[in-house]
Amino acid sequence: MTAIITPLLALLAQLAPGATTTVITQVINILVALIPILIQSYKDLLPSVQNIITALQSSDEITDDQWDALDKLSAQYDAEFQAALAAAEAEDAQPKI
Amino acid sequence: MRKLLAIAFLALSLSGCASLQQVETTISNAVGVIASTKVNSKSAYVAINVFNAAERSVTAYLRLPLCNGSIPVCRVNGAAAALGPPFNAGIQARNDLRSFMRANKGTLADAGLYNTLVAATNSLQQVMTVYGIGGAK
Lengths: 97, 137
What we know:
The complex is a heterodimer of chains A (97) and B (137). Chain A has 97 residues and is mainly alpha-helical. Helices cover 73% and strands 0% of the residues of chain A. Chain A has two domains: 1-60, no CATH class; 61-97. The relative contact order of chain A is 0.09. With 137 residues, chain B is mainly α. Chain B has helices at residues 2-14, 18-28, 41-62, 79-103, 111-130; strands spanning 38-39, 109-110. Chain B has one domain (33-130). The relative contact order of chain B is 0.17. Chain B is elongated, with a radius of gyration of 17 Å. Chains A and B meet through helix 1, helix 2, helix 3 and helix 4 of A and helix 1, helix 2, helix 3, helix 4 and helix 5 of B.
């Protein structure tokens, strides 16, 4: 899971507003090529990457349904992050034998 | 298999793959933070999804067993304390951007809030690098 995120973020974080169509097309092609790898080993990242591909491929604005679905995903991710963070901090605080 | 795929992808991103290098070079000229006052909703949507991907990766890292010298894939003691504050700041930045868009439906997103989220995501990348999140495991 973690091994793929740095190159993925490095690629995606640079997709600035105003990026050319050529750049966007190339990024889409790279992301689409990654889908089989994501399905096999990085399923947790799949919804976010698929959302990005869909958004970049469309010439339309983001729909209310897309935003609503993203809001639900964000809420789920936040809850799971906070739970994992609390559990890890609790474990870190325990005296080590 | 997973390790091989991860290494293959990293190698691809670091090697002489012409097309990928071309993309990285081209888009490096148009890096995240922007100077204009408004951004379109699609850019905000992509930025939020990028942040969410980082959040998922760190959540997976936090679920790893604590390193004890014998586990190859593990979580460093103290990483949770270091990752928590910047990620919570990123969550706040994402929610602020989303709240603005919800309150101003049909308009462009505020560039300041967008830039804050992009900057938070970039900072998170640096913290993740320190703890080896993103390194070949």
